[in-house]
Hints:
The protein is of the alpha/beta class.
Amino acid sequence: xxxxxxxxxxxxxxxxxxxxxxxxxxxxxxxxxxxxxxxxxxxxxxxxxxxxxxxxxxxxxxxxxxxxxxxxxxxxxxxxxxxxxxxxxxxxxxxxxxxxxxxxxxxxxxxxxxxxxxxxxxxxxxxxxxxxxxxxxxxxxxxxxxxxxxxxxxxxxxxxxxxxxxxxxxxxxxxxxxxxxxxxxxxxxxxxxxxxxxxxxxxxxxxxxxxxxxxxxxxxxxxxxxxxxxxxxxxxxxxxxxxxxxxxxxxxxxxxxxxxxxxxxxxxxxxxxxxxxxxxxxxxxxxxxxxxxxxxxxxxxxxxxxxxxxxxxxxxxxxxxxxxxxxxxxxxxxxxxxxxxxxxxxxxxxxxxxxxxxxxxxxxxxxxxx
Length: 370
Ligand code: OSB
Ligand code: MG
């Protein structure tokens, strides 16, 4: 495959409701979309990096710059390109995994569309639908939280994840557990605690949570292992798992017993599959995390979540949980599940009119002549 040009497009996607986490409140997503233009089919990539570097070190303007200045020049130099080689071609550039993930996704989509192969089949999916959960932001009151969660459960979501932070943890979890005794419930701290909070976090043990996600900072694997020894609730890592090798280390150290897989965080869908493989080899359950993706990223994530090791419900919700108008055909929840797209590549189509409406800038970067 020969890459002719890459379109970089920024779109503004207002969220249905502000999404509050321990690191800040997101009201809208400023998304960088890539379109890989080849001699065959075009392919789409979505960069999941948020506006500010608060979840991890990456942010959308930084991704935009590193893609233009350091990543695309290396891709254009490759005479023959295929998705499986993108990681190696970009490997001289350290880190910047969300930027690399967006590129690999676009190239992979172009390649799979050209040979009429769905993402799901390429990745090794074994299911036609995936179980969906919903990630619930920090609310203004417990009363409001109960209403919001009741609404999601009525829609059919199979698991609730509650964002927590110091001051919003034991009481909201207790209220949810009392009101919904049988619901699958888990919490996500986005690194808001320290190891000194171990006794406090152990108070969550009585609520039969599926897991506690990323209680401590990204680099604190040893501290997570010490915390795990003091909690009955299983620890799941998100931010810390930046690669398959990081997953192997975390598991071996006893830092986690469950892993959240986010393709963007680990540098792409192909590394995400390797994270799945490593975890499966260790008997560690995985589930697919989310970054409030549009229909493009959601399509890829649903395909990934259909792999055999994804045994827990995903942070993949229907389009209408995030956006009034998605840029692809909407993903609709049915019986608490989303259907895995079966068409070529990502298997979804971008709506040109909607895309035009939400676009804030477009730029075409062409392969240099020589
Ligand atoms: O920590 O899982 C997280 C969204 C943005 C950044 C980090 C996280 C999240 C979510 C949302 O929890 C999950 C979703 O896309 O529904
Ligand atoms: Mg998380």
